[in-house]
Amino acid sequence: MRAFLVAFSLVGILLAGPVSADPKPDGAYVRSGDVDLVALLPPPPIAGSSEDKADIAAVFAYEKARTPETSDRAKADNEMTIFRLAGVVMGPDFTPEKLPVTTAFFDKVKRDSGKPTEAIKAYYNRPRPAAAALSLQALLPLPKNAAYPSGHTTWARLNAIVLAAMVPEKRIEIFARADEYADDRIVAGVHYPTDIAAGTIAGSLIAQKELENPAFNTDLEAAKAELRTVLKLNATQ
């Protein structure tokens, strides 16, 4: 895990270069080439290495510790919507029906996490835990793409950063829920701990690039105003 921390300490330097003049992102706000996760993240553990064996052991430990409650939550957390991720934190008024601007905004945010993660998944092509350890019983059908890094975790961390900027009063709860959501990928048997660690960094890197985009910040302020009005929160936060 130390390698992940060292890598994360360097990425701010690597991302601080000049912004390209090309104004057309292939995501909603970010071009996939602006966040080169192959360059910015450490590689996954080598198959058969001590770190790889520790990853496999951790997944089996999670399987053994499953309860009906955690299993049900892990299955439900396969859903990638901001309302599934943060509804338990934000309360009953946090619904797409009441928040059309916020819904559209987070749909756009979601687009920015896809291409960067798919590129690095294809590059390393790390097998899912249940494919590498056939005795493991996954709770979900195995996705067809590779394991590293976790796309759900990347998306959850990105969304947590954005949502916390909109509702800073709930920052602690938002990040705790994003961590739980990410952890549920291990509970479900579809990811290793190092996939989760890498996804957490990846989501942070993508969020940093979004925050550099004026169009993103304009849309963020519009969604923030709607959300804070619906939740009856002080508009000056």
UniProtKB/TrEMBL annotation:
Output the Gene Ontology terms for molecular function.
acid phosphatase activity
Q: Which residues form the Phosphatidic acid phosphatase type 2/haloperoxidase domain?
A: 117-207
State the superkingdom.
Bacteria
GO cellular component, alphabetical, reads: outer membrane-bounded periplasmic space
Listed InterPro entries: Acid_Pase_classA_bac (IPR001011), PAP2/HPO (IPR000326), PAP2/HPO_sf (IPR036938)
Q: Which residues form the signal peptide?
A: 1-21
Q: Which Pfam families match?
A: PAP2
Q: What is its EC number?
A: 3.1.3.2
The reply on keyword tRNA processing is no
Q: SUPFAM superfamilies this protein is in?
A: Acid phosphatase/Vanadium-dependent haloperoxidase
State whether keyword DNA-binding applies. no
Keyword set, alphabetical order: Hydrolase, Signal
Q: Which reaction does it catalyse?
A: a phosphate monoester + H2O = an alcohol + phosphate
Family under the similarity heading: Belongs to the class A bacterial acid phosphatase family.
Instruction: State the protein's name.
Output: Acid phosphatase
